[in-house]
Design goal:
Elements: H1 13-43, H2 49-76, H3 85-91, H4 104-131, H5 135-156
Helix pairs in contact: 1-2, 1-3, 1-4, 2-5, 4-5
Length: 160
Amino acid sequence: MAFAALIPGHLSPDMAAALRDTLNARLADAIATALQLKQAHWNVRGGTFQQLHELFDTTYAQVVVQGDTLAERVVQLGGVAHGTVQTVAVATVVAPMSESQLAPEEYVRATVDALRTFGASMYKLIDEAEKLGDPVTADIATGIAREVDKAAWFIGAHLG
């Protein structure tokens, strides 16, 4: 069976291609966000180390699953998921995190910024999927946006 045969019947090949492109870009955002959470997890120091270390790692695991969901949707729509380091570096809208040692508050701010950017990209995906008539992709993006917004709130609460 050809991949094109897997595209849901209500989507034209052009609509599916547009969604795949956007999904791959959002996959890049998920991967970039996850890597920033892991960077913060590895390097955070100070009096809040234990809490932040665990929170960054838990959130990292959630974002990895969200990225996997986006990648699987790309393939369900007849495409190839693009998750190489090279692709992510070019495609993501998530700003890079400093590779210098940061204070705990700076790691919190940086990860919240990454999560907010990733969340905003999910809202754009919701809009595009709805315009193209794909409620499944819109629902996937809505679920991810809900979780990402909550994660940004949890981490951001450490700023007081």
